[in-house]
Amino acid sequence: MRVRILRSAFEDLVAGRRFYDRRALGIGGYYFDSLFSEIDSLALFAGIHRVQFGFHRLLAKRFPFAIYYRVIDDEAVVFRVLDCRRDPNWIKNTLEQTD
After folding, report:
1. What distances in angstroms separate CA 59 from CA 51, 62, 67, one per listed residue?
2. Where are the domains of the chain?
3. Whole-angstrom Cα distance, residue 1 to residue 77?
4. Which residues contact 62 (CB under 8 A, 6 or more apart)?
5. How far is it, in rounded angstroms, from Cα 41 to Cα 44?
6. 6 near 79, Cβ under 8 Å?
């Protein structure tokens, strides 16, 4: 299965990398690599994750982030990558605006 990352998700990834870059040297790159590895796994495992707010949600293993995606025509489309520490209402509203 192909994996496509929308601009909104890529911007989320860049914002997360900036956040971790400000914390300590090298953490931003590690964050980026870890999240892209999780996204790459969708090529094999897309569609098995729990649905929340109308999107499949893949929880990252090493960082408190969730990857929200949909399977559309044999393609995993990543819409957002959001920080799970945010208010659930904020996450829901953000995803509703993504549609």
Report:
1. 12, 9, 6
2. 2-98
3. 10
4. 30, 34
5. 6
6. yes
* Top-level class of domain 2-98: alpha beta
- Dihedral over alpha carbons 71, 99, 60, 18 (to 10 degrees): 130
Are 50 and 74 in contact, with CB atoms under 8 Å apart?
no
pLDDT digits (tens, 9 = 90+) for 71-86: 999 999 999 999 999 9
CA-CA distance, 2 to 42, in Å (whole number)?
Answer: 8
5-32: pLDDT as tens digits: 999 999 999 999 999 999 998 999 999 9
For residue 76, give both structure tokens: 């995993």
Neighbours of 94 (CB within 10 A): 17
| 30, two tokens | 């590690």
pTM of the model: 0.95
